[in-house]
Amino acid sequence: MNIGEIARRAGVSRSTVSYALTGRRPVSEATRRRIQAIIDELGYRPNAAARALKEGRTRTIGLVVPPAGRRLTDLQLGFVASVVDAAARADLDVLLSPSGGEHERSFERVVTGRRVDGVIVMEIRLEDDRVTRLRHGGLPFVGIGRTADPGDMSWVDVDYDTLIARCVHHLADLGHRHVALVNRNADLVAAGYGPGHRAQEGFARAVAERGLHGTQVCCGDDARSGQACAGRLLAERPELTAIATINEAAVAGMYHALSLAGLAVPGDFSIAGVAARHWAESLHPPLTAADVPADELGAQAVELLIQRIADPATPHRHLLVAPPISLRGTTAPAPSRR
Amino acid sequence: MNIGEIARRAGVSRSTVSYALTGRRPVSEATRRRIQAIIDELGYRPNAAARALKEGRTRTIGLVVPPAGRRLTDLQLGFVASVVDAAARADLDVLLSPSGGEHERSFERVVTGRRVDGVIVMEIRLEDDRVTRLRHGGLPFVGIGRTADPGDMSWVDVDYDTLIARCVHHLADLGHRHVALVNRNADLVAAGYGPGHRAQEGFARAVAERGLHGTQVCCGDDARSGQACAGRLLAERPELTAIATINEAAVAGMYHALSLAGLAVPGDFSIAGVAARHWAESLHPPLTAADVPADELGAQAVELLIQRIADPATPHRHLLVAPPISLRGTTAPAPSRR
DNA sequence: TTGTAGGCGTTATCAG
DNA sequence: CTGATAACGCCTACAA
């Protein structure tokens, strides 16, 4: 079923059918109707590959996600959902590409085979060779996250540095003197995962400014690891009264470890962090946290990408968000003694 | 950068370059090497659209997911991850299409514009018009889930009927007489969501066989709703001592409601269900549940789809799994009295 | 208002 | 072993 077949049945030329479809040139009402009737009857749709070949664009964007083997956090899932949603609103399709590990070929195909008009890359590292390759390949792209030298790329990101610093200040204001930062998993941080490092910096800075005693640990991205990690912290640092964290998936486990240790949240121990709102609210108790607006960030990333595709020469744009901390009751004045 | 350019620089014809690339006809080692060197130097990759147009296939499969607005459960996320993974292993790309609601156009584009060679559809309803349209359009597809009359389509599915019945029998064996089924959200079940209905059937049958008192309720797919739902159940049915559920996302909330009511799990109250293993294990306490092998199901769905694409006339195949219930300690003998 | 013709980048058929 | 050439289905000057 192609445009020629429609033209034949309608008794017109292929170009007339094409123009009737795109409206880029006037077509008499009568023939337009006749053509439309046949199209409806046969359920014809233009072949996407042929159109892409002719127009030089695919009306598809790539979304490079962390390798499927590793579980996506609730926040990452939020990004995926909002990107797909925003793309659909702009009549763009989304091609998923797991990157890293064994999936080099997938990334290579998507990026270099002109399968997409542009790419959104998630979970950007401080030094990220996917970014290097995209730059080299000349394909428009936008990061959710940014590299160490983010001047010459477009991105949207969460200001983990500022947010974790704010958490620490908040805890310090409440009288906490011994606080810990629970980071994402060690492999990720070691690989140069931006939020992990920027959270460390913000934490160190705020701890220094307020003259606190700070500890930093990495922790697997799940409840189990959270429990083990918090248990270890409590054992090694009995003077600890508060945790700041960017590891939303581990928080439920931390709660559990605390309750096993006989510590009430927030009476005996405070926790504050950065998380997806949905997740923060569904925890028991709901977590005091800076709520990352994943919807907005995803939509903005698509917006930025659409602009770069339309005009690759346009200056790079950035969006760094630092949403306020929503108090939900997991922070309270430090206990007078333990 | 196209095949002609490579040919020009290598001093050969385009067809020779093409054959050197595909290996579909012998090429002398010398010229093959020369061509390859130039390809490597220029970073050439064949244009996917041109290839798709010529070959009549896109090397891409569509994955139709529930609308992005609604949150995916951990299990659904597992399906997405395993499908993407299995597709990447087969050198297939995955085009994501949110279906339902405002995203009709996306589904239509993917299905009818020859953008993909085949489709995997998630969250199939007993009567599902996406299935109807796919059938009508003649595009190969595989369901994760099945319709009410699943004979003439290929699918992989979880046997919720059997699994929930097993949960009930397990609870009955432990002496429970009053049990409730906590289903997925009411909208979904009302829309004919297969697992919801099949769970109801299995529950009703097992309850009847064992002469138990059963109740069924729907419950939003999140911890909050789980808490509200379990709270309501306990208030209205104080004689209740056990819950069977397919709503993994609500379980944490149920735990909370039970603990608020002063009921210990499993001492005073038992829960058993169907869930992703990862999720069941990360709950506190870990949930006794039939562990759905999302990885296997996703991989099998891709496998089935690849076969259907290769030969659309091949008979339909089905995979219905009923994994054993893993005892993790949320079920115990019914309390002698309450 | 409509038709003709050329080309997007590949692959495959037919010659050599 | 290699080259020329014709499609694949669509869009869009250029003509009429």
Automatic annotation (TrEMBL), chains A, B:
Residue ranges of every copy of the HTH lacI-type domain listed in the record: 1-55
Protein name: LacI family transcriptional regulator
Keywords noted in UniProt: DNA-binding, Transcription, Transcription regulation
SMART domains referenced in this protein's UniProt entry, alphabetically: HTH_LACI
Entries under PANTHER family matching the protein: LACI-RELATED TRANSCRIPTIONAL REPRESSOR, LACTOSE OPERON REPRESSOR
Keyword flag Methyltransferase: no
Keyword Ribonucleoprotein on entry: no
Gene3D superfamilies: 3.40.50.2300, lambda repressor-like DNA-binding domains
Superkingdom of source: Bacteria
Alphabetized PROSITE patterns for the sequence: HTH_LACI_1 (PS00356), HTH_LACI_2 (PS50932)
